Amino acid sequence: xxxxxxxxxxxxxxxxxxxxxxxxxxxxxxxxxxxxxxxxxxxxxxxxxxxxxxxxxxxxxxxxxxxxxxxxxxxxxxxxxxxxxxxxxxxxxxxxxxxxxxxxxxxxxxxxxxxxxxxxxxxxxxxxxxxxxxxxxxxxxxxxxxxxxxxxxxxxxxxxxxxxxxxxxxxxxxxxxxxxxxxxxxxxxxxxxxxxxxxxxxxxxxxxxxxxxxxxxxxxxxxxxxxxxxxxxxxxxxxxxxxxxxxxxxxxxxxxxxxxxxxxxxxxxxxxxxxxxxxxxxxxxxxxxxxxxxxxxxxxxxxxxxxxxxxxx
Length: 313
Known about the structure:
single chain
């Protein structure tokens, strides 16, 4: 009989728990960005909104991880037999039940947020995100649409956060599109880069993934000029920050391209995923200031700490 701690560890591995904080950073960034763009304040209700967004986004992300392994269980039996389902540490039926319940929970949390705010947007984007997660795990990831499907999931997650301020997202500006598109495109590139991480990867695919990530970053770099003259005025510091981030990504991805073995690729993927929190924090720093940016940046702490004990790729 498996020990209780080993059973818990198996489920934590199935959930890819360290990575959930990147989804949390995305949805809260979307909410705070839209709040700053609309120059609105939610007052005393802000904490409740943030908590519900965290619960909804986390539920969908964790559901995606569980269903990913459920649909890949036969493939993982050959390629990654140590994963929780093929190693039989987590029964197939339990994984399917858990993934399904997490999807339902995500919709319930978002629907509650819609009820509280009187806006249909959070519930609508939650349903859209649930469909996107299931479509990606069940069908899209098996073909060339996979990276686009994953990028769409991340973009919808950001829009779910934005919809708390504008339920219909009918008043989107160029800056909103650059933020949503930038995050989505960055994840398209990262997903393409990580697609064959269990084997020796194609240098062409890795290079394409890195270039697409660069396009996503370029979208994020350019958004301030469409939002606030005050932010755009400090162009030198802004560009210097993004240059450092881009060079760090290029360095790690470049090493993987030169030697495309699983270890190098997985190290680069993990770094690029962690960097997503930094990108979100930078956007909020430009629009909301130090305090909220530091709160997002603090999400790196549990991500890195848990990543030492629970695999995240």
